[in-house]
Amino acid sequence: MPVVPVLAREAALRQLVERIAQLRLPARVALDGIDAAGKTTMADELAERLPHASRVRADDFLRPAEERHRQGRDSPPGFYDDSFDHERLRAAVLAGDGVVIADGIFLFRPDLNDLWDLRIFVHAEPEEALRRGVERDAHGKGSREEAERLYRTRYAPGQEIYFERVRPRELADIVVDNTDLSRLRVSLGAAAGRS
């Protein structure tokens, strides 16, 4: 297995920006990965460094609670199947000009995967992502205990469904290990060898 060098965050971001800048316009870039891997922050950082880039956040396309929870508040299949309005998300991505940078979970699923010119999988070790997610979600959304319970009963198992069905890491052109926020590992994904 090849050794992947560790880069300071700014150097890693520069490398990603250089790769995105090589795409023919209009270009659509997706950052996928588990909850709290750091996708939104990274997508914002990339967009800030690219002239005229626009942002699409999958979280802006959440379905209403009654639709998201129709299979039950704790249902992992419900989390995967019912969380997002993919038709509206698709329309927003296609409406963008120049470079569109989208972030969110489940972006490489079959009904969205054809959108992307570049697929970046953002990895974080599950326990670190859980820590970040609980910290984020506990602010203003209830207790840390409830946030952790939802991660362990709904979110993480729902994402496992996605990993088993779709294998998003294998679809990625680039994989970024974002476990250590200051020092990233950027490597070519499995899909890069097929393109």
How many H/I helices?
Answer: 8
Top CATH class: Alpha Beta
- Walk across the major sheet and give the strand order: 1-7-6-5-2-4-3
Taking the sheet with the most strands, its summary is: 7 strands, mixed
Net shape: globular
> What is the CATH-assigned architecture?
3-Layer(aba) Sandwich
In short, what is this structure?
The chain has 195 residues and is α/β, with parallel strands linked by helices.
Give an overview of the whole structure.
- This protein is an alpha/beta fold and 195 residues long.
- The protein has a single domain, classed as P-loop containing nucleotide triphosphate hydrolases (Rossmann fold), CATH 3.40.50.
- The chain is built from 8 helices and 7 strands.
- The protein has helices spanning 9-21, 39-49, 65-68, 76-82, 86-95, 126-138, 144-166, 168-171; strands spanning 6-8, 27-32, 54-57, 99-103, 118-123, 174-177, 183-188.
- The protein has a 7-stranded mixed β-sheet, sandwiched between helices.
- A hairpin with a 5-residue loop joins strand 6 and strand 7 (183-188).
- Helix 1 (9-21) packs across helix 2 (39-49), helix 4 (76-82) packs across helix 7 and helix 6 (126-138) packs across helix 7.
- It is globular and about 45 Å long.
